[in-house]
Backbone:
């Protein structure tokens, strides 16, 4: 498997270079104005968990599809009775071959909370300034949701008849709150979510510090999010008569041991491909050399130490666990009866969160510290395979839109709804073509934005690559 993946990555690069030399520029798209209107409408519908409505956004995008000619039977907004504002849009553009597996276009339409007083602009009004769109959700993830909806509209208007079914799922709850619609959809509407593979967010495509395309990413697998509760209890007592058996000391010493511990390095196909290809564009020779050394020998401690200086690269190489919250004691003049901490782990795909709990017990090395899972674990699955069927069409389109820009696989260290679809047997890839600036476009933060040119390039990329996938074998 390792050798095949490495060989294919080199082949994909060669194909991209060939396409770049022979491609003709894509024709101008006269539908940009319509897309801008659709994008603006979606962004300006408040879909926060506190007071927004995904249902309203889903209905608005459904209306766009129906206006383009989709029948009512192929466009549905669904939600459980107990969560009427958590609506998801399900739509299908039927293919010519009912036996061919479908492609699922997955994007969430809920957004992180945004307080108007903290923002320079109204977070729920789309503003275009100095080459950027500003608003909550301008990037995460309404850009991709708008593009997918717009692409289906374009396909319908053009009379495009794909070989495969194209399924759209605009979902709610990815950013938190009481309800995530993706697990519910997989359980209650499995046929709508059934697909040969899915496209989703999470690819980490990047602009450089001058706002020019730096790399196109494809996200292959992601870490598992898991919180653990570490707790010590004892009888306590009067603070004037201290004893060594102190709940705070037990917990603090255990956390110190955890803080000093590094989980072992374990590279997968995505991280190997990431280091192999990122080394070609890494400006620091020491870091580039460490990347090459790590691909050659993942046990190279010197290379690992260099790469671990960057928190993102360190997290790609290994499971990470970090203390994020602590509470202890009940009175300033009493010995603590309880000390508790939350430890947040981001676990490499394919590893059981319960096994990580057992490993934490070994690391903290104190039987007084009881460790439990703070919630039921998310489903665990290995990364989906990197195959020519996925990589070649994307590389071909990318070479035309961004000649000479490398196409690099990576594993996501955060989390997306792809963790649910992958576990349900739908290989899910983060592929958007939406390149973010060096500041991450302030996603989840104040004044979220996206470069206008990057949005339009991503729109054209997804429109073309989905077409190729839809007619592929």
Residues:
């Amino acid at each position: 498997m390792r050798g095949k993946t490495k060989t294919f990555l080199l082949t994909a690069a060669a194909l991209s270079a060939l396409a770049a030399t022979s491609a003709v520029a894509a024709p101008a798209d006269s539908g940009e104005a319509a897309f801008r209107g659709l994008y603006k409408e979606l962004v300006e519908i408040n879909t926060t968990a506190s007071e927004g409505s995904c249902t309203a956004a889903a209905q608005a995008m459904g209306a766009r599809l129906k206006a383009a000619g989709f029948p009512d039977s192929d466009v549905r907004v669904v939600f459980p009775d107990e969560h009427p504002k958590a609506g998801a849009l399900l739509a299908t553009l039927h293919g010519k071959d009912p036996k061919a597996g479908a492609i699922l276009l997955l994007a969430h339409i809920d957004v992180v909370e945004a307080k108007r007083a903290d923002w320079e602009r109204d977070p729920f009004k789309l503003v275009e300034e100095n080459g950027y769109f500003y608003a909550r959700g301008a990037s995460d993830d309404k850009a991709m949701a708008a593009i997918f909806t717009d692409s289906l509209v374009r396909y319908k208007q053009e009379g495009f008849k794909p070989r495969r079914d194209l399924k759209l799922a605009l979902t709610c709850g990815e950013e938190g709150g009481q309800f995530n619609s993706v697990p519910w959809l997989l359980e209650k509407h499995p046929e709508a979510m059934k697909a040969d593979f899915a496209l989703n967010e999470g690819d980490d495509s990047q602009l450089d510090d001058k706002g020019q395309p730096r790399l196109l990413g494809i996200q292959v697998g992601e870490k598992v999010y898991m919180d653990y509760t570490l707790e010590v209890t004892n009888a306590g007592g009067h603070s004037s008569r201290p004893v060594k058996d102190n709940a705070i000391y037990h917990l603090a010493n255990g956390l110190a041991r955890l803080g000093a511990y590094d989980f072992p390095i374990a590279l997968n196909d995505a991280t190997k491909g990431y280091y192999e290809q990122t080394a070609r564009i890494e400006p620091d020779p020491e870091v580039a050399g460490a990347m090459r050394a790590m691909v050659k020998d993942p046990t190279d401690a010197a290379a690992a130490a260099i790469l671990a200086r960057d928190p993102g690269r360190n997290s790609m190489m290994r499971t990470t666990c970090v203390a994020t919250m602590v509470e202890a004691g009940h009175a300033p003049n009493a010995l603590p009866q309880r000390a508790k901490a939350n430890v947040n782990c981001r676990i490499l795909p394919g590893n059981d969160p319960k096994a990580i709990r057992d490993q934490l017990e070994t690391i903290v090395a104190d039987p007084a510290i009881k460790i439990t899972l703070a919630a039921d674990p998310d489903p665990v699955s290995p990364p989906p395979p990197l195959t020519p069927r996925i990589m070649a069409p994307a590389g071909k389109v990318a070479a035309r839109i961004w000649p000479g820009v490398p196409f690099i696989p990576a594993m996501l260290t955060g989390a997306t709804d792809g963790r649910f679809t992958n576990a349900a047997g739908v290989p899910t890839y983060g592929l958007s073509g939406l390149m973010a600036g060096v500041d991450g476009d302030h996603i989840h933060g104040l004044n979220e934005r996206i470069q206008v040119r990057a949005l339009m390039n991503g729109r054209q990329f997804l429109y073309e690559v989905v077409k190729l996938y839809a007619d592929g074998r």
